[in-house]
Design a protein that fits this description.
The protein has about 170 residues and is mainly alpha-helical. The chain has 7 helices and no strands.
Length: about 170
Amino acid sequence: MNLVTNGIQDVALAFEAGEQGLMALPPRRPAEGIFNRLMVEQVLTAGLTMALVCLAAWWYLLEKDTPLPEARNLLLALLIMMQFYHVLNSRSEYRSAFRIPLRNNKVLFAGMAVAFAVHLAATNLPLTQSLLGLFPLPVGHWLILGVAAASVIVAMEIFKGLRRADP
C-alpha cells in the first residue's frame, strides 16, 4: 500500500520545476557520486525521523493495549502521512518547503490527492480491507496522525535552516 501511494507522489515530483539559483552554485566535483554528502544527510535525517516517530507510535499503541491489526493500520496511515509531508521537503535540497508554492507543481498536488484517495479507498472497500487488513479511521485519528507526521517536515526544516546558516 505504501509503495503505491508513495509511487504516485514520486512520479508527480518529476514535474517539479528546476530550483531557483541552482546555476549560481559552484559545480559538483567530477569525482562526486550521485549520492553526495548533502543527499545522504537529508536521507538520514528524514529516515531517522520517520523511524523514530513510527517506533514511538508503535510502542505507545502497544502500551495502550491497542489490538495488533488496529496498531498496524494506524502505523501504515502514519507512514503514508509522513510521505505526504516528505514529498514537500523533497522539492528542494536548500529552500524551505514553505517557500515553494504548491501551485508551482499542480501535478504533485494532484498526485498527493490521488495517493490519499487510494489509501482511503483501500481502507473503505471490502475487498482491499480483507486483503490488506485495513479499516476506516475516524477523523480524530487522522488529525492526530497528521500532527505526528508533521515531525518529518519540522526535522527537515531545521536541517535546511542549519545548512543555510553554515558559512
